[in-house]
Amino acid sequence: MKKVIGAVISGALFAALIVLLGKYDVAAIGPDGTEVGFSHINQFVHEFTGVNMLWYDITDYIGYGAIAVCGMFAVAGFVQLVKRRSLLKVDREIWALGGLFIAVIACYVLFEKYIVNYRPVVMPGETAPEASFPSSHTMLIMTVMIAVMIVSDKFFRGGTGVLVRVLCFVTTLVTVGGRLYCGVHWFTDIIGGILLSITLLFLFAAVLSGGRGEKADPDLDVAYDNNHAGKRSNNSSKSMTGYKPKH
To answer: What letter would DSSP give residue 25?
Structure first.
């Protein structure tokens, strides 16, 4: 229930931000006279950071990496389907991740059609400013990386799991900071991407909460510990010591 409440709160904040962007401190500070709300803080941050296309390219490549991660889990789900021969036997985490990735795509398409505001710059090769809210890279990478952190205990053991979580966390920070610093988004675009990502992640965690306690799949566990099998065998041998069959 707490996760659902968290999703409702972050979703409400995201919706409120959209409303305020059309009503509060709106000014034509964008290219071609395009308007944006919270104009003073957006203009201040944009002038402070300037435009850095190197960081735009870096965060673009990170975005491709996030898409590759989605593909890896899709392959993992297919492997489970082939081995277990039933959609119902594919891990709950895989299904939840699939639903989450579809939700991210749906949000991206929605805000390409429903334009809240435009970029503060005209991108190279374009003749007009593009839709900018929310920052799709911020939403994509934050959602994917933190979702992987949430399910990492299911598929990674020990030091591997720790390493995965650290890499995902650092990637998220670099992307959010880099996307703001590159100057192709307004400050409120980044905030919108973060709020939307938090909403999706709360819903994702709520879906998973009903399936906690399931054991990791040894076929897909990256760091499966074979010592467990040996320990079970030793324990079984000890339990049979002194046992005499009845005739």
So the answer is: S
CA distance 77 to 243: 44
149's CB contacts (< 8 A; 6+ apart) are: 164, 165, 168, 169
Indicate whether 153 belongs to any domain.
Answer: yes
The stretches in the chain having pLDDT less than 70 are 210-247
Residue 207 within any structural domain of the chain: yes
Give one DSSP letter per residue of 88-107, joined into a string.
Answer: GGS-HHHHHHHHHHHHHHHH
Q: Encoding tokens for residue 200?
A: 């999706």
Pick the closest to residue 42 from 57, 54, 25, 56 (CA basis).
25
Q: How many residues does the chain have?
A: 247
What pLDDT is attached to residue 92?
Answer: 85
pLDDT at residue 247 in the model? 44
**CA separation for the pair 160, 206 (Å, rounded):** 25
pLDDT of amino acid 189 = 96
The first and second tokens of residue 169, run together, are: 């966390």
Establish whether the linkage from the previous residue to 134 is cis, with ω within 30° of 0: yes
Structure tokens at 199: 């909403």
Give the pLDDT confidence of 179-191 residue by residue, as tens digits.
999 999 999 999 9
State the residue range of the domain holding 104.
Answer: 2-211
User: By the 8 A CB rule, do 184 and 120 touch?
Assistant: yes
**Tally of structural domains, the chain:** 1
